[in-house]
Specification:
Length: 232
């Protein structure tokens, strides 16, 4: 869970949780409150961030079977995980700005269907450090109770693709669960990965399994190799 600018004061914790198949998975709350194998450190060269919702947060698979973990072990870049369960594009840009991710080499933003583009405001504005300190999700996985009430969120009548901002040069979009490359602004046409036609193993709730996350990490690795060969 995202802890805002006070997040660096939070204690790193590791706990065991049962996923939808009853298997034990490890959850690790890092120094800024995300489920991640790495603590977020000062900016260095060759760093990558993954931003998205529960598919990136990887509570079903655990921190050591997340897309970020697999990718981090396959490339030279350090890979940070910024998965915010229930988030939308407004949350993703807020994370991007708050953690100064424009300084990183690449930032992959995962869009989970058109629902990520219908909200006018972020979810995270409602949360306070006090709430997070009392949160029991590391024991009982109750984090969703903080996201079910969306009555304060304003929406567009249809997905608003103008929410995708072109000024952030290091952002690469990853599409899954519905959005197609052809629907994106022209600026992103060469900076997008479309997973919609890829066969990826999922749990009964639709989230990717560890094997599925490994497949996606391999796709990201291949994209990076080709992207850097072309000189961006």
């Amino acid at each position: 869970m995202w802890l805002s600018e006070e997040g660096s004061n939070i204690k790193v914790e590791e706990r065991i949780y049962l996923n939808p198949d009853g298997q034990k998975v490890e959850i690790r709350k890092n120094n800024v409150g995300f489920n991640a194998h790495l603590d977020y450190d000062s900016i260095h060269n060759n760093q990558i961030a993954l931003i998205g919702d529960s598919f990136i947060a990887s509570y079903n698979c655990g921190v050591y079977k997340s897309i970020a973990y697999y990718l981090d072990n396959e490339i030279e870049h350090r890979v940070y995980n910024f998965g915010l369960e229930g988030g939308n594009i407004n949350d993703y840009y807020k994370i991007y700005n708050e953690f100064k991710l424009h300084q990183l080499s690449y930032v992959f933003i995962f869009l989970t269907g058109e629902q990520d583009l219908i909200y006018k405001n972020p979810l995270s504005y409602r949360y306070k450090i006090k709430d997070i300190e009392e949160l029991s999700f590391l024991n009982n996985f109750n984090i969703k109770k903080f996201f079910v009430d969306k009555k304060n969120l304003k929406t567009f009548n249809s997905p608003n693709y103008s929410l995708l901002k072109s000024q952030f040069k290091n952002i690469i979009l990853v599409l899954h669960k519905g959005i197609r490359k052809e629907q994106l602004p022209v600026f992103f046409q060469n900076k997008v990965i479309d997973l919609n036609d890829l066969k990826i193993n999922t749990f009964s709730d639709g989230h990717y399994t560890g094997e599925g996350n490994k497949v996606i990490a391999d796709v990201l690795k291949s994209f990076l190799n080709n992207y850097e060969k072309k000189g961006k």
